[in-house]
Design a protein that fits this description.
seven-stranded mixed sheet
Length: about 800
């Protein structure tokens, strides 16, 4: 029998027993989950000289329009929950509580309530039977959710995450008592019941999921000023799994809606408030470095999300969809925390928003910082809400700052701090979602404790609107015609330049922009980009890198050789080895490095631009302009033995594994000439190496004058063949300075695995200033069998400079 049916039968049994005068709260102790009972009415206000002693104060779960679950932990006997409409003088409805997992955590679900109505309630202990009041709690209030489509009133949700104690005990309590209650609830905790629909927590609720002390002291005790009034809506994080791999404690304390996938109880679910659908997901099993990657779980969860979004598309009562999970897709201040699985969930949400026009977003944590961004093509909010536990990002550590942070184009602001986020949703005919970020200053921190200043300030705001406003399109002002390579400047005009929040510049060699499109968008094209700079403190100083920038002008020299096709798309799907869990079907570049914008001499490009206002509404595109670049001079570089015609590996260095020269294998003959390169015949020959790497250094110092002006391009071409069994080559070109140090990012090409077919591959790299050599590396990656079916031929390099 499933849990849902068990709960229904238990409710009927409890009702029958209580009406007949039996006290059952000590007797019914289901192993599997919490119980529910609605048992009669009592007129008198409960009163006692003794207060109930809570080890966990009341908190709210499973909110609906007609019911609410009240949970609490106490040693007092036979507790029940007395409920009636707030401010009324009528009867109390009494819900008898049920022990959760045979512990002193009790759950009482009050059903049959009116929608969108505040209710007052007391927790009452009855030591001598159900009508004997031996101890009473303070008066608390909750408010039921509105029925779908029944009200136009706006509502608010508070988003926090990573509430674990990070040697900052007290900070979470300050966020509640000094931040949320004074700011959102006019300093009256009871007012929070009507002022806040839910508090979302995107994982890492405690530091170690197996510690009941941490659940009680570090989380629930810190939340007790608000938890009796506002439902807590949570998902697990990696720390909640620590020492508790089956999530028994998380599932013990939290009651999630029973609408996820069968066999994955309480791991993912959805919950509606008005026209908002909250979707809780579990990113721990679909990550890698902070959990063993589970492809099956990813597939099941992703399919469940897809089906839910299909149903949501047809639901006219839902205007907003927010997903929440722990691990970030992209994380500006902690690259090591990123997850490809999370990126697949984000992509599903973006697809839904693009298709339906509904406003969407995702809430995440893991990185203990505030970050806010938005998707380029659709109104989808990115929100890192994890600022409840304290600084994790070592901005003052040079190695960390250099290697584990990245100023992504997707994000407009990142700052390491304490605070909370308030999301306000309209329910009228013009949906809008407003974000207000409240930040706090640390008053003291040390000895495992932290305290925040009394005042919280607004540090960021954003309002997204579903109905796009009419935004004037820009006009081309500069960048039409033929220009020298160092004079490629684009400019637009706009009737109200001060209204521009960001600009998207689009370039392609296709006049219809249907293929090979580069989008200049993000940090350097929006009105504000907040990034923490090093000042010796662990959190750094937030600085606006766009202060004073004219958004109507750009120089293509700032982007040539730097801008990747798809902007952040490569970073979503091609993580570092420590975070790369799987090759995603979403990767538009199939594992190869994204093409980099290289404005080659003699080429013709087409460009256009559009502008976005502060509500994230895009204008139409400008007219298309044609940009021609003066011709250049191309020289063939002397790659030694690039076609293997020396019948050996002369000119090349085997760095690991095994390479050989063949004239035929598997009926594959050379693409050019008579011979070609081939990787290992078997694992023994490769000496157990993970890859087969072959490299050659090519001297370009003779072109230093042009290179140091950043106007020199190197172009690689080669042919590849194989057996179609998944084995592939990765061919890279890396700039090297005169001291042997690498410069910039390499050009990387991943070949396809096609059976007995020679394929042509090309790539272009703008050489950074100070380049004196390029390192060409051929890597064979074996995916099946013992032999590496990777064959390469006709490897050529050319160098182009302006005339």
């Amino acid at each position: 029998m499933n849990k849902k049916h068990d709960a229904v039968r238990l409710a009927v049994l409890l009702t029958a027993l209580t009406v007949s005068g039996c006290n059952v709260s000590e007797e019914i102790t289901p192993e599997d989950k919490k119980g529910v009972a609605d048992v009669g009415k009592i007129v008198a206000v409960p009163a006692s000289d003794t207060a109930i002693q809570f080890s966990i104060f009341p908190y709210l779960q499973q909110p609906t329009a007609h019911s609410m679950a009240v949970l609490f932990e106490t040693d007092d006997p036979s507790p029940s929950v007395w409920t009636r409409p707030a401010g009324s003088k009528g009867d109390f409805r009494v819900a008898q509580s049920v022990r959760v997992d045979k512990t002193n955590l009790y759950s009482a679900t009050v059903a049959g309530l009116d929608a969108d109505t505040p209710y007052e309630y007391f927790v009452v202990s009855s030591a001598q039977g159900k009508n004997n009041v031996s101890a009473v709690s303070d008066r608390y209030v909750f408010k039921t959710y509105p029925a779908a489509g029944a009200t136009n009133a706006p509502f608010r949700v508070v988003a926090i995450s990573d509430t674990q104690n990070n040697s900052t005990l007290g900070a979470l309590n300050d966020i509640i008592s000094k931040g949320i209650i004074p700011t959102v609830c006019q300093s009256q905790p009871e007012s929070c019941a009507s002022a806040i629909a839910a508090i979302t927590i995107s994982g890492d609720i405690v530091n170690s999921g197996d510690s009941l002390l941490q659940w009680r002291r570090d989380f629930f005790d810190q939340m007790k000023a608000i938890s009796p009034y506002v439902p807590l809506v949570a998902v697990p994080g990696n720390h909640d799994y620590y020492g508790n791999t089956e999530l028994t404690n998380y599932r013990h304390f939290f009651q999630q809606p029973d609408n996820g996938s069968a066999g994955y109880d309480e791991q993912w679910y959805w919950l509606d408030y008005g026209n908002l659908r909250l979707v809780g997901l579990n990113s721990y099993p679909i990550s890698k470095s902070h959990g063993k990657f589970n492809a099956e779980t990813l597939g099941i969860q992703r399919q469940w999300l897809r089906e839910l979004l299909v149903d949501t598309q047809a639901d006219h009562d839902v205007d907003y969809v927010l997903s929440m999970f722990h691990h970030p897709c992209l994380s500006e201040l902690w690259l090591s925390g990123e997850s490809i699985g999370s990126c697949e969930m984000v992509a599903e949400m973006e697809d839904f928003s693009r298709t339906t026009g509904k406003l969407t977003g995702h809430l995440f944590g893991h990185t203990h910082a505030y970050s806010r961004g938005q998707s380029m093509e659709t109104n989808h909010l990115w929100l890192n809400a994890a600022t409840a536990a304290g600084y994790r990002e070592k901005i003052n550590d040079d190695n960390y700052y250099k290697n584990d942070t990245r100023d992504y184009g997707t994000f407009a602001i990142s700052q390491s701090e304490f605070g909370f986020n308030l999301l306000t949703f309209n329910q009228d005919s013009t949906p809008s979602m407003q974000l207000t970020r409240y930040s706090a200053t640390v008053a003291s921190k040390g000895g495992g404790y932290a305290s925040l200043e009394e005042t919280f300030t607004v540090s960021d705001t954003l309002t997204m609107k579903a109905s796009p406003a009419v935004v004037d399109a820009p006009q081309v002002l500069e960048g039409q015609g033929t220009f020298a390579l160092n004079q490629l400047n684009l400019a637009i005009s706009h009737p109200d330049p001060d209204s521009i929040y960001e600009v998207q510049w689009q370039l392609s060699q296709d006049s219809l922009f249907s293929q090979h499109v580069f989008d200049i968008w993000g940090n350097q094209t929006r009105a504000q980009n907040i990034w923490p700079t090093q000042d010796g403190t662990i959190q750094g100083t937030p600085v606006d890198t766009q202060a004073g920038v004219d958004l109507t002008k750009i120089s293509l020299a700032d982007f040539s050789g730097q801008l990747k096709m798809g902007n952040d798309e490569t970073y979503k799907w091609q993580k570092r080895d420590s975070e790369h869990s799987h090759d995603s079907f979403r990767d538009p570049f199939y594992g190869s490095a994204a093409p980099v914008l290289t404005l080659f001499p003699g080429e013709t490009w087409y460009w256009r631009a559009r502008v976005r206002n502060v509500h994230l509404s895009w204008s139409d595109w400008s007219e298309t302009a044609t940009l021609s670049i003066d011709a250049g001079v191309t020289t063939t570089l002397p790659v030694q033995n690039g076609g293997a015609e020396a019948q050996d590996l002369s000119g090349w260095t085997v760095e690991q594994g095994y390479w050989r020269v063949l004239d035929e294998i598997d009926n594959i003959t050379a693409a050019e000439g008579q011979y070609y390169f081939s990787a290992r015949p078997n694992d023994t020959a490769a000496g157990g190496a993970a890859y087969d790497d072959l490299s050659q250094m090519v001297d370009v110092s003779a072109y230093s004058s042009s290179i140091d002006q950043s106007f020199t391009f190197i172009r690689l071409s080669f042919r590849s063949n194989g057996w179609g069994d998944g084995d592939y080559a990765v061919v890279s070109l890396q700039a090297i300075d005169g001291r042997g140090n690498t410069l910039g990012q390499p050009s990387v090409v991943k070949t396809e695995s096609k059976k007995q077919q020679w394929q042509q591959y090309d790539s272009t790299l703008l050489l950074p200033a100070d380049t004196r050599a390029v390192k060409l590396t051929l890597r064979a990656v074996k995916k099946a069998g013992s032999m590496s079916d990777v064959h390469l031929d006709n490897i050529q390099l050319s160098l182009t400079t302006p005339e």
